[in-house]
Amino acid sequence: MRCIVVMAALAAATLPFNNPVFASNYSGEIAVGSSNSIFQIGPTSNLMIDISAIGARDQTICPSCYSSYNDNYTALLLNQSGTVLESVNETNYLYYNMYSNSHGIGAGPVSVSVPAGATTLEIESQLSIAGLLGTDGLPLNFGVLDISSSGSIATPIPTTLPLFLTGLVGLILFAWHARRQNSLTNYEIG
Known about the structure:
This protein is of the alpha+beta class.
């Protein structure tokens, strides 16, 4: 019985974490490689999406070698049933060495008109970074995703939170079962 009370208390404690926080701007890190970010959006007419990677050039690479940033991403606007209402593909890249640079292609915010009925924004990104260092002096392994809206955007729930809570409930159930088996064994012996 105590186990059920504890589980109910844990479930009640996690409810505030499951409600998204709405704002008109979002800024967060996006990992190098493939990533998928999903946001709940409120009524809005326009979104500005920008993915960038800012870092210092790695001085240990040769002067004619390129430092580069490349990002291909797709922004999907979906309705409540998951139907794609609008899709925008974008490519950003910038490469440079000690002697020249590309001046970037598409390196800037992308404006997306939000169709009526859109409730979800999904950004599928493929980011690669080479020869750039972060503020800690280590190779840069993330970009920055910035979204601004004329309405509201919900910050995403970290995908690890539901997984953590599921594991925690599983451990509680396992401990409860082991304790129950132990008490039954002691009852039979005694």
